[in-house]
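In the design runs reported in the main text, the only information available to the sequence generator was the tokenized backbone. The following block is the verbatim input for one such run; it is reproduced so that readers can re-run the procedure and compare outputs position by position.
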């Protein structure tokens, strides 16, 4: 059984969903420390001039140690309108714009309180559209108190997994010997970003997965997974 883990991201990129698809179980790290200037509250979309950030404003002042599930959105800013308008402007000419824009209209019509709820709503929608049915668990459900590599080991043990799938970045911080000592196989994600037709050229990778969805629709899964 292959397990992978990750924090819940905002409008995740394709590699995020590729990792989930390659796993037998995916654990969302909902009770680890929130990190600023990463991808938990922002991501990139394609525009005619290149790419831009879409950033959800969060309340972080004097909250340096808050956990992901505790993070509140700062709704004093009209971020929903800005994000929806940016998506519409960027993808209005995409082949499958009309198929998916209503979901984003609905998402941005709500006043979200917790960042994790917004992220999970989008992640679940994308999983459905990519036909990825990997079971999802939450770290908060597993009652694991250790950190770093020990946390991963305990997650695998809790789920009776014999293999852990890490992103390539894990090579910089995982204790590989600890996996060997616990008889858990450590493998690294092999993801080659697909190239597909975007609304504008040249092709830009590492964007939110909505770029693939708007441009390729029901063919997105095949492109993502190389089927």
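Verbatim output:
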């Amino acid at each position: 059984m292959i397990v992978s883990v990750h924090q819940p991201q905002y409008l995740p990129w394709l590699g995020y969903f590729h990792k989930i698809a390659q796993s037998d179980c995916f654990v969302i790290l909902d009770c680890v420390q929130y990190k600023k200037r990463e991808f938990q509250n922002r991501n990139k979309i394609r525009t005619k001039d290149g790419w831009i950030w879409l950033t959800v404003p969060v309340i972080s002042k004097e909250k340096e140690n808050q956990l992901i599930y505790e993070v509140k959105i700062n709704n004093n800013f009209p971020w929903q309108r800005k994000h929806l308008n940016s998506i519409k402007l960027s993808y209005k000419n995409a082949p499958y714009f009309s198929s998916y824009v209503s979901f984003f209209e609905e998402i941005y019509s709500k006043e979200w309180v917790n960042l994790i709820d917004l992220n999970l709503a989008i992640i679940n929608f994308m999983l459905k559209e990519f036909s990825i049915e990997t079971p999802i668990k939450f770290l908060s459900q597993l009652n694991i108190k250790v950190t770093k590599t020990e946390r991963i080991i305990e997650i695998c043990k809790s789920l009776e997994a014999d293999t852990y799938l890490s992103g390539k970045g894990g090579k910089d911080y995982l204790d590989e010997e600890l996996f060997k000592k616990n008889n858990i196989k450590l493998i690294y994600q092999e993801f080659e970003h697909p190239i597909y037709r975007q609304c504008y050229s040249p092709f830009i990778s590492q964007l939110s997965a909505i770029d693939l969805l708007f441009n390729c629709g029901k063919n997105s899964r095949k492109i993502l997974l190389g089927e």
